[in-house]
Amino acid sequence: MEKLSARFRDVGFDWLILLLAALSFLTLYLPGSLSSGSAILAIILISCTEPRFIQRFFIQYRGPIILVFLILAMAISFSSLPFKTSKAIYDFLRAFLLLLIFSYLGAKLQSGIILRGISFLACLFLIVFFMNMFLEAEPSQSMMSSANWAQILRTSYSRNIIATQICLALIPIVCVLLDREVVLSKLEQSLYSLCVAASGFAILLSLSRGTLLAAGVTVLVAGFVFHQRKAILCFFSAVLILLFAALLLPAQTLAHNLVSGLYRGGDLLTARTEIYSATFDFILKAPWFGYGPGTFKHLGVVGAYTHPHSMYLELLFSFGVIGSSGLIAGFLWLSRRSAKISDKDGPLFKFSLILFVFFMTRGIFDIHLFVYDTWAVLFIVLGGVCCGPSVKKVGISSNVMRTECVGEEVMGAAPEQVECTATGGDCREVNPGFESVLDDT
Prior knowledge:
Layout: H1 2-11, H2 14-26, H3 34-49, H4 53-60, H5 62-78, H6 82-108, H7 111-136, H8 149-153, H9 159-178, H10 186-205, H11 209-225, H12 229-248, H13 254-263, H14 272-285, H15 311-338, H16 347-362, H17 372-385, E1 391-396, E2 401-405, E3 418-420, E4 427-429
Antiparallel strand pairs: 1-2, 3-4
């Protein structure tokens, strides 16, 4: 009991911060401000627990951060509608808090613990989500038809957005199932597998081809990252089935209707060609600095469309070639600097990589770039990369954690400055002058 109490005293508010971080991630596409509110509360707790953390973080990554903020200032100065651009940048700054939160968690807690915590909450989130749909659906509203989902959930979001939210909640669960470093109990394995099966069926019912494409590519990449041949086999099996199912399945069955809905008469882009063409024409008129983020729907590019349904086109439309290059360079610079301290074999790093693959693939044919939700996903990815752990995970189980010290990965610490125990996952400082993982450099 004394050891447990000491453990909680050492952790402080970190478990609560982890809970708030998971809520911020899982409620990105839900109406209201629950995600950003949870992030703000987590930042307050971080400031109370580790007052110098935010200062150290900005010192550590001051170069790329200054570059990104200069690009944002340039976007406002060159914007066609500066007031609208300011709103988009405000959402960007709110999402930036998640970079700080996940970086803090990665520095304070074990990578596997973070992923297991998020996965457990993601599973609960999906259970509540599906139960709410089941209870709220009226007899005339079939859950099998994704056209009814927005009415059942009383939201204005399309089925594409709802399917994207399900996928986001599913990614940590898939990662924790595939990662051999994370040892789950049989109950966890059964519960998570059931959750994956139910969510996968719901994503198929959504008829969101962009989400299905992103999910398929993500599963394929996850198979290679986690060295799981079953995931790779599932990907190619699913592609084969979708290609020939419409010819083999009996007409008027649910499966046949699903596949036919995905093909939609061969119109694979579903009127997006017109949007892309009009957006590209606008880009050619202001190729270098763009029109400013958040201005697309106010300039009447294509009727009532609020964004060009391509993250990459919206980036060029908003920042132009020069601004887009500077913004990408800032994020690559930040990632490169953090690569020296990142545990690339850790579960959190792999989760960030898989989430990044889904995000970048999903953005090809959809995703409104300059809103809070989208930037939040990107900053969660960067937070998982920038965490800078002081120990390298070798094996994780529910009761025992075995760690291997990697002193050279601790910023500002030589290998002889850190001493690790053989079991228990604890690292003791030999040099009392070494204050933190995220120390000044």
